[in-house]
Each structure stands twice: as C-alpha cells, then as structure tokens.
Design a protein that fits this description.
This protein has 278 residues and is of the alpha+beta class. 52% of the residues lie in helices and 13% in strands.
C-alpha cells in the first residue's frame, strides 16, 4: 500500500512538473547538485529558485540534486543558483552566506563538505568575472548614459533626451546579470523592469515635460542600484522640492554643483544635494 502511495505521489509530481515546464518558453533543463537535508529544505530551495513562467526547480532530498528548467532567453542557471544560495543552500557554483546558513533550522544545516572545492571554484570564476567586468563594465555604461540623459534635460533638449534615453535602454539590455556581484545582482533584478520602461517612455516621447516626469521615476530606480555599487567616483543624490507640481523629484549627478534637469535654465540652481555616494 505504501509503495502504491509513493508511486502515485511521484506521478502527480511528474505531471505537475510537466505542466509547469509547458508554460516556460525557450525551455532548457539542467541537473545540478544543491546541498540540503529535508522537506523544509526542498520547500525553501524551490521557492527561491522558481519564477512564474520563467524558472522551475525540483529538488530531491535523497540525491541532493535539482532539476532546473528555465527560459534561456530570460534567465540562466547561475541566476537561479544565486537566489538559492541567498536563502542558505550551497551548490557547486555558489556558497550560501555564512550568517544565512547559520540561521537555518537545525534539521536543515547540512554538512558543508564541498565548501573548500566551491571556494576554489568561486575564486576562479570570480577572477574571470572581474576580467569581464573590467573589459565591459556594463553598469558603468548604464550610469554614464544616465548622466548624458540628465544633461540633455538640463539643456531642455527633448530630441537629445530621446536619443540618450534610447542609448540608455540599449546599455541596460546589454547588462549580463551573471557578471554582477550577488548584492548588486539582487537589486538589479528588482529595478530592471522599471528602468527599461521609463527609459523607453523617455525615448518615445518628444515632449520635454513628459520626459522629465519619467526621468523622476527613472532616477529613483537608479538610486537603488547606485547604493550597492562599489563606485570609483563620487556621485551626488540631489533633490528639487518644486518639481512634479511641488511634490519634489530627485536625480543623480557627477557634479556637486546643482544643475536642475527638471527646470533647466528657468531655475538651474534650484535644489540641493541630499546624499553623497562614495
């Protein structure tokens, strides 16, 4: 009776997994080793890895492996394993932070037998990633094109602002999330959609006031990613209390001197620096 029950459960899980995978486009499936012990681990691992219509994780406590299915055009194995590591579970590619692992329930604290090997592998991968970032610096390009967009709005040049917003959108699209450090990666995933939406809205518009309204939201999202970046140069987070009909608006600048992108020459020096990011 017990064996029949186990078989039925396996069939149900298989059908459920097949239904989920059918909803994922550009499907790619891989099997990876992920540490863990019990049903609680399974729930946490799968919750961290799953993304609706994008990624599905099925972890097996007996084999300590997971079947990862994902849309290869929207994500990759590394992104999924990073999310799983952040909730406490080691894989062959990424280690969970020690404090997160230490806070796992006692039954979930697996023996970290592969830690030395993972550290060694991570060091090699980190060196490769650092080299790639040094050559490409995708977020540096994003930041620089943002500043060019800001300068276009300071000049009240809607055509130039549209061009710079289009360049910003292109630079955002080129960012390879697998090259980002984990803390940056997690914030980037949250701001990516609104950044793209606002950049496109500015690019599509020819009205400078509409562009400025979108730029306000864009700047708030840019600030979130700026807070976790390790910057070589100082950046100033500035605020105009009169923008947006008195509601106020923010922007980022490489210069401490105020050059207001919401009013241009009308009130070029209106505003103040509210935070210095180093």
């Amino acid at each position: 009776m017990k064996s029949i029950k186990n078989i039925l459960m396996a069939v149900i899980l298989l059908l459920s997994s097949s239904a989920i995978n059918a909803q994922i486009k550009n499907l790619k499936t891989e099997t990876v080793a992920i540490q863990g012990n019990c049903g609680m681990c399974k729930k946490a691992i799968e919750k961290a890895g799953n993304l609706k219509n994008t990624a599905s994780v099925d972890w097996n406590a007996d084999t300590k492996t997971a079947s990862i299915s994902y849309d290869a055009k929207k994500t990759n194995k590394e992104e999924i394993l990073k999310r799983i590591a952040l909730v406490g579970y080691d894989s062959d590619s990424f280690l969970a932070p020690d404090d997160v692992y230490n806070n796992l329930p006692g039954c979930c604290q697996y023996e970290r037998v592969n830690k030395a090997q993972v550290v060694e592998k991570s060091k090699e991968e980190t060196e490769s990633i650092v080299k790639l970032v040094q050559e490409d610096k995708p977020l540096t390009t994003v930041l620089n094109t943002y500043f060019e967009l800001k300068d276009a709005l300071v000049q009240t040049d809607s055509k130039l602002a549209s061009e710079k917003a289009d360049a910003l959108l292109a630079s955002i699209e080129k960012v390879d999330m697998s090259t980002l450090e984990m803390d940056v990666h997690m914030i980037w995933m949250k701001v990516l959609k609104p950044l793209k939406e606002n950049a496109k809205a500015i690019s599509d518009s020819k009205n400078v006031e509409n562009q400025r309204k979108q730029f306000s939201t864009l700047s708030d999202e840019m600030y979130k990613i700026m807070k976790v970046l390790k910057l070589e140069d100082t950046v100033y987070f500035q605020h105009c209390p009169m923008a947006n009909n008195g509601e106020g608006a923010n922007w980022l600048s490489k210069e401490e001197k105020i050059k207001n992108p919401y009013y241009g020459e009308k009130m070029l020096s209106c505003g103040k620096t509210v935070e210095t990011i180093k």
